[in-house]
Design brief:
alpha/beta, Aspartate Aminotransferase, domain 1, Aspartate Aminotransferase, domain 2
């Protein structure tokens, strides 16, 4: 656990935003160490030097995410998007299987199940998802924190309901990994992107699978999915990796070079300290909204705050150098480790004007 002084000094050394940036739920800011690593990775290519360090970065990212998610590294696969990971899971289901989802969840968690055309996809309000698991439900797919408004799913209740009825669970941690504890071991499948709360570049997404792979087939497998990748470049892969690496896509090397350093920073600061910091700011914003006569979407314990009736203010705020989002008709602000109480007050002052 970092002390407050150490937390703040580490953050100051890594971030110097030129705007009031309250939009991590869209894109996290890149730490200085990450920018430096991206520059060095580009120089390797530009100067014709060996790319071995970049492949080492890929495996370092896999190991770091495994620690963050609380699973053995052999359960972590690397890809480029949550949608691709969802598609892999969707392809493994038999025709007619029921998939339970939350209304209004992020498209990447939902759409691959819909486009199959032969699955029974059922949508219910997020608050009812655990109670809606029933005999015959094959899979429950949900985001841990909702992108549109920050509401947090009751994952322990969902997992218990799934166990009772023999359903598998698939959780997208994209809007929570990095500030909320990520218990991937409690679920069959889970995914997360790199470029939001994990503060990495775009182009990487993690997939956690069961030890027995959960019936997934490596339909996207290329040479990197071989047990010996360098010996798997020509012809069919003779032996797939014995770990979740059999589900890897060819890694975006520059992305992982930067992401390695972002994940190092998350580990140095500690998720619990980041969570406490983020929630203090989100609660300050909620309290200020109440004073101004606005009622945010109820999302206790979330670093994401969505405010109905204020979406039209987003362009005006952007012009004033305050970066927030319009999502599902709400004004959405999201608070991360580089934000300060002054950022919150700046946004509240602008909204009061």
């Amino acid at each position: 656990m970092e002390t407050t002084e150490t937390f703040e000094s580490l953050v100051r050394a890594e971030f110097a935003p030129k705007t009031t940036y309250l939009n991590t739920a869209s894109n996290g800011l890149l730490p200085a160490r990450t920018v430096a690593a991206l520059h060095e990775a580009a120089l390797l290519r530009a100067e014709g030097r060996p790319l071995t360090p970049l492949h080492e970065d890929v495996e370092a990212c896999r190991a770091a995410y495994a620690r963050l998610a609380g699973v053995p590294v052999g359960r972590v696969a690397l890809g480029a998007s949550v949608a691709a990971h969802t598609g892999l899971i969707a392809a493994s289901l038999p025709a007619g299987a029921e998939v339970l989802t939350a209304e209004g969840d992020f498209t990447s968690v939902l759409n691959p199940f819909h486009v199959r055309g032969d699955l029974k996809v059922r949508e219910v309000p997020l608050e009812r998802i655990a109670d809606s698991v029933r005999p015959g439900t094959a899979l429950v797919a949900v985001s841990a924190a909702q992108s549109a408004d920050g509401r947090i799913a009751d994952l322990p209740a969902l997992r218990e309901a799934a166990r009772t009825h023999g359903a598998r669970t698939y959780v997208d941690f994209s809007q929570s990994a990095g500030w909320l504890p990520t218990d991937a071991d409690a679920h069959d499948f889970s995914a997360a992107v790199s470029y939001k709360w994990l503060l990495g570049p775009n182009g990487a997404a993690f997939l956690v699978v069961p030890e027995d792979f959960g019936g997934l087939s490596p339909i996207l497998a290329g040479w990197v999915a071989g047990e010996e990748p360098e010996a798997s470049c020509y012809g069919p892969v003779a032996e797939l990796a014995h770990s979740a690496r059999r589900f890897d896509l060819s890694p975006v090397l520059f992305t992982h070079a930067g992401l390695r350093r972002s994940l190092e920073l998350i580990e140095e600061l500690g998720v619990s300290a980041i969570r406490a910091h983020n929630l203090a700011l989100a609660d300050r914003f909620r309290a200020g909204l109440t004073t101004l006569g606005h009622e945010p979407v109820p999302a206790p314990g979330s670093a994401i705050v969505a405010v109905p009736g204020l979406a039209h203010r987003q362009p005006e705020l952007a012009a004033a150098g305050i970066q927030v989002s319009e999502r599902a008709g709400n004004l959405r602000a999201s608070f991360h480790l580089f934000n300060t109480p002054a950022d919150v007050d700046h946004l509240l002052d602008a909204l009061s004007g």
